[in-house]
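FIELD: query
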Amino acid sequence: MAEKKKSLADQAYEIIKNNIMNLTYPPGMPLTEALLTEELGMSRNPVRTALKMLQSEGLIVTDYYKSMTVKEITDKDINELYQLRELLEGSAFKLIFEGGKAEEYSYRIEEKVVHMCAVASDVYKWELADTQMHLEIVSIFNNDRITKFYESNLSELVRVGMYSLKNGMRIVPTNENLKKMVKYMRKNDYERAFAILKKDHFMQGKDSAMKEELKNE
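FIELD: result
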């Protein structure tokens, strides 16, 4: 069966959303239908539909005068998102070891890390691949509500991750450290494996993202 062709509205939605998430349209950037119709080469109707979809997701906000801007990311947002990640992923990572599944998950996570290495030359693709690695960790819960809750924040997590990469978080050393984390998982060494996850993805990621926010103040 032939793949169903995406509507113009869906195409506009994907392009605008990707541009928001990869910071082509940075937080606080004004957006207008006229600007986007010209940039995307589309009529206003699909662009308007796409913008409504993105407003419902919270990526685009409107003010009293109905002017549209890309949602800002504040230091409070960054703190809350990293607190969420550390709570969920920290508990999940510990559960992997407590449940005797460290070796199994080492291979599952390694598969994601291999992909991260393959796309290392493209910052945005790497960030998306990194997100999938983190989703693999929380999959240990086997809890649809936790997965949906986590996925509902992915757009913001990706944007914040892009901040981190712009401000000091380096891809190649991070990939190498994740390879070490996988090896420690195979040895069932929770302390050393979690230390890498915590340092590279919670502490350094948050600190680098905060530098971008301070720059924007």
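FIELD: remark
Residues 133 and 183 are 16 Å apart (CA to CA).
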